[in-house]
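dumping these here so i dont lose them again. two proteins, back to back, each one seq then structure tokens. dont judge the mess
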Amino acid sequence: MKRSKRIFLRIFAVLAGLVVIYHIVWLINCLSYKKYVDRVGVDEFGNSSLIDEDGICYSAFYPNYLSFTGNLAICAVRPDDVKVGDQFVDMIIWPKPFSDSFKIGIMLETVTESNYNETTHESEVATDRACFLLDEDTHFIDEPNQYELEQWETAQDAVATYYEKANEVWGILGTVS
């Protein structure tokens, strides 16, 4: 009886130690996002976002509890009067834990239908989306199809601008190669 109790206590101590170590490593990783959050600031509601004079929105999110991946995002503020053919580009940057490398997600939305309501001043829109996953050297991780490549070509200026903006705000990414 005494021997089995000692074995149980040892197993419990090892498991508790692993849990504590995991939490410490998670906390260190989480704190590495502070430099990104500080660059955009935190409002009175605890949201970490910033809109610059060009209407570009930046946000930074800490990793969720026990997750090692937070994200940084850049997007244009959408106007109220969206028209068919308007294209919007969003960028999400996932810093890799304990590394200086990143994965980048680009979402291109092209408005295919738009109904503006004069009474509520809101637009109901339908969009066509193309999404891309890139490494930090802007190489596609998943090979896009022909339609996605065509969409990618139309968004090159916006993507290049977002890369420059990410570099200005967070000191990462550089330029599109």
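---- next one ----
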Amino acid sequence: MSARFVGAVSVCAGLMIGVTACGGSTNSESHAPASSTATTAASVADQCHAKPWPLALPDWRGQRFDAAIQGDGACFHVTTATAPDGHNVLFDSGDTPTYFVVDQTPAPGTVVSERQPVTVKLALTQGG
């Protein structure tokens, strides 16, 4: 997971968690103007807010963390992503390893509100 992705992860956490307002990405290497990026982030956030909440939490177990929280997955309020060493990868900077989701709370299928905190436990290998 790269620094630019992890940085994005925290935005939607504020607005959902962070793949920039639920689905896009804040890419510091992007050549798009800042206003274009902000407009995209706002429109993605609007798409998340427009969903028919509450929604059933997807089953992310076994999936790459970075893939799990993109698209519709970015609309869920992931507040903690715990790496094997116990740190929260949402605050990582720089290039980070590829993590896989091994557990999540609430359980997959649980109906959650738009702002209900969701936590995931991560591993460096698929299946933990």
